[in-house]
Amino acid sequence: MSGAGPGSPSGALLVVGDVVTDVVARHRGPLAGGTDTAAVIRTLPGGAGANVACWASHWGCADVRLLGRVGSDAVAWHERALAAAGVRARLVVDPQAPTGTVICLVDSGAAAERTFLTDSGASLRLDPGDWSDVLLDGVGWLHLSGYLLFSEPGRALVATTLTSARARGVPVSLDPASAGFLAELGVDRFLASVDGMEVLLPSRDEACLLTGLPDAADAAAKLSRHVPLVVTKQGADGALVARSGTVRARVPAVPATPRDTTGAGDAFTGAFLAALLAGAEPEDAAAEGCAAGARAVEQVGGRPPVGPASGGRRTAIR
C-alpha cells in the first residue's frame, strides 16, 4: 500500500511505543521532606505511545492500532482500557519484566506542573523480534514514541520499523518524549535515528536541546532542515509549524485552566495525527492539537475520557 503525505489521508494510524501504569499524585505546594505531604492519588493507564493512540481515536481517527510491551501483571487491565478507547492493541507480554510504572507528582497549584519518576519496565524491552511487516497492512501513517530511543532494543526496533515503512511508502513521525532522557542519549545519536522521518513533534525544551538554540522558533526552523516537517509544542504559547528551514505558522493555544499537565503533549500529537490523516494541512492539524492539549490539561491523567458522550472534536476535514 502506498503511504500518505501530510494532507493526503490514507489508511490506519499505527503507533509503536510505551504502555505504562501511571500513579498520579496531586499535591499542593512543595513536598515536605522527611514527613507526610497530603495528596490525591489515582492509578491510571498511561504511556506516551498509548496516550497518543487513545487521543487519536478520541479525535476521530477511525482505525488506530498500537504495538507495545507490558508485563503479565497488568496486561488484561491495559488491554481493556485501550479497547474501551477504540484502540486495536497488540501487547507483547514480557516474560521477565513487569509493566512500566510512572509516578507523576503534580503540583495542584495554578500551573499544575508535573514531575515524573519513571520505571520503564517492560516498555523499553520492545525489540525487533516484536515487529512484523504485516503490522503495516492497511496502515497509512506510522508514529513512534521517542521513548523507544532510550534503550538499545528500542533503537534497533526504530531502525527496523523505518526500513519497513520506507519499503511500503508509509510516512513516519516521532515525538522525542523526554528532554531528560534525550540529554542522556545525545543530540547526534537522536538526529541519526530520525533521519528519513517525515514529521518531528518536539516540545519547546526538546527543540532547543536538539539544536542548542535558546529561541523555540529558531530551533524549529533549524530542525526542519533535518526533518521535513517540525511541529513544536509550546504549551500555553501554542505551537510552531516549520518546514524547509522556515517557521510557516504560529498556532495560538486554546485557553484552559490546568489541573494536570500529564499527557498534554500526547494529546496534541494524537489529535494532530488524526487531523492530518483526515486531510488537514499541518497548520490546521496543529490547531486541532492545541485544542486537544487544552482539553487534556483540564483533567487528571494522560488519556481522554472514554464513552459515547465524551468524544473529541472529530473534525471532518477534507
Automatic annotation (TrEMBL):
Gene Ontology MF: a single term: kinase activity
Entries under SUPFAM superfamilies matching the protein: Ribokinase-like
Any one Pfam family match given in the protein's UniProt record, by short name: PfkB
Gene3D superfamilies named in the record: 3.40.1190.20
InterPro entries named in the record: Carboh/pur_kinase_PfkB_CS, PfkB_dom, Ribokinase-like
Region (Disordered): 299-318
Keywords recorded for this protein, A-Z: Kinase, Transferase
Domain Carbohydrate kinase PfkB: 13-304
Coiled coil: none
PANTHER family named in the record: PFKB DOMAIN PROTEIN, SUGAR KINASE
Name this polypeptide is given: Sugar kinase
Organism field: Streptomyces spinoverrucosus
